[in-house]
TrEMBL record:
PANTHER family in the cross-refs: TRANSPOSASE INSF FOR INSERTION SEQUENCE IS3B-RELATED, TRANSPOSASE INSO FOR INSERTION SEQUENCE ELEMENT IS911B-RELATED
Region (Disordered): 393-416
SUPFAM superfamilies (UniProt xref): Ribonuclease H-like, TrpR-like
Pfam families referenced in this protein's UniProt entry, alphabetically: HTH_21, HTH_Tnp_1, rve
Domain Integrase catalytic: 219-379
Molecular-function annotations in GO: sequence-specific DNA binding; transposase activity
UniProt organism field: Duganella radicis
Name by which UniProt lists this protein: IS3 family transposase
UniProt GO BP: DNA integration; DNA transposition
Length: 416
């Protein structure tokens, strides 16, 4: 009878090292997980823990550390003696452990070579190589998931009304033998759902307050009247990055943006603080019902500034249409054309694109003016979300201005 698989235990130092690598944001979670031989979910959890507990490091007052008067030679000999005693103790205990248990100690990519690890653990190298071969097969499955995510991301960007059923048909047409359950898992992990009226298409975090939508039929007639935000996936050569941006509805200007290798609330709050610091504050701030935007950390900043909070209704594809159009432009005009390999390249590329998007790219809805000019001068812009699912007898507020009429027409075109 085969022995049960022993759970791998990671030291606090190892977790801190992996979490700090994730906090740096230079690599994707998938790259970090493959480098250190852990599951991507653990990388995200450890990053979240270190962000949440970082403030505690500065709560305790530190006094002067006691001076160690021993010489460096004494320290060295003492350390050698301590290590020898520990090794001798471990060798005595190894006699009661099975070879299978000692085999689990071997880790590929460790500073100690595999041959030396096998010698110290007292296990044959052939056993270790078989185990590593099985791990390689699991890694190939992860690589296939990355390919499927990339295909799903591209098709969803082009057809956001596709749910898991249509996505299965699309992937099978590309030659993948895949079932709906796997597609549902991948789309759930990516935060994607078909944009059509239906139950439970957007689920906030339990316990988080959801605010009503305040912008249906409201004419946006000036800059900083309404800001909006959303998160999207961007595929890289190894893994995915998460992009959050804040846009001014009147001018379509991107006020602030941030990248992250995990979908936590911290980088969304940082993006919001940056927009408030450089552009003042809006009258209304709109978002979807995602856990990042319903969290107390995010809504607390808006309450502190006295900003009215608005959130998209469930199954309402048009409530945040301007940010959705921004994501389409970013992906088709930059990301898909350049095929960024890593986080560093993506950061530089997006900085160049958003500078072009704001200051140089003419927008049809703005009378072919740029968002920066419309935002600074306060003329030529506008927005209006038409309530096509509400009361048919209710007419929206009157909208004046060429840019506002174009904005309403743009929304009508998107839904056709």
């Amino acid at each position: 009878m085969s022995e049960g698989k022993k759970r791998r235990v990671h030291t606090a130092e190892f977790k801190a090292k992996v979490a700090l690598e994730a906090v740096r944001g230079v690599k994707t979670v998938t790259e970090i997980a493959q480098e250190y031989g852990v599951h991507p979910v653990l990388v995200g959890q450890w990053k979240k823990e270190i962000l949440e507990n970082a403030g505690a490091l500065f709560d305790v007052k530190r006094g002067p550390k006691p001076v160690d008067e021993s010489s460096p030679e004494d320290k060295l000999y003492g350390e050698i003696g301590r290590l020898k005693m520990q090794v001798d103790w471990l060798k005595k205990k190894l006699g009661g452990m099975s070879a299978a248990e000692r085999t689990r100690w071997i880790e590929q990519g460790d500073k100690v070579p595999l041959a030396m690890q096998c010698e110290l653990a007292g296990v044959p190298r052939s056993t270790v190589y078989r185990r590593l071969g099985a791990a390689g097969r699991a890694q190939s499955e992860d690589e296939e998931d990355l390919q499927l995510r990339a295909l799903i991301d591209g098709e969803y960007t082009n057809r956001p009304f596709y749910g898991s059923r249509r996505m299965v048909v699309f992937l099978r047409g590309r030659g993948y033998c895949i079932n709906r359950k796997r597609v549902q898992r991948l789309m759930r992990e990516m935060g994607l759902a078909g944009m059509a009226p239906g139950p439970a298409t957007s689920k906030p975090q339990p316990g988080h307050k959801v605010y009503p939508y305040l912008l249906r039929g409201v004419a946006v007639t000036r800059p900083n009247q309404v800001w909006s935000t959303d998160i999207t996936y961007i595929r890289l050569a190894k893994g995915f990055a998460y992009l959050v941006a804040i846009i001014d509805w009147y001018s379509r200007k991107v006020l602030s943006w941030r990248l992250s290798n995990s979908m936590d609330a911290a980088f969304c709050v940082d993006c919001l603080e940056d927009a408030l610091r450089h552009h003042g504050k809006p009258e209304v701030f709109n978002s979807d019902q995602g856990s990042q935007f319903t969290s107390s950390a995010f809504t607390g900043v808006l309450k502190r500034e006295g900003v009215a909070i608005s959130m998209d209704g469930r199954g309402r594809a048009l409530d945040n249409i301007f940010v959705e159009r921004l994501w389409r432009n970013v992906k088709y005009e930059d990301v898909y054309l350049k095929g960024y390999a890593n986080m560093a390249e993506l950061t530089v590329g997006l900085a160049q694109y958003f500078a072009f998007y704001n200051a140089e790219r003419p927008h049809q809805a703005l009378g072919y003016e740029t968002p920066t000019r419309v935002y600074s001068e306060g003329t030529g812009g506008g927005a209006l979300i038409v309530d096509k699912f509400g009361d048919a007898d209710r007419e929206p507020e009157k909208v004046s201005g060429t840019g506002q009429r174009r904005a309403a027409a743009e929304v009508e075109t998107d839904t056709a």
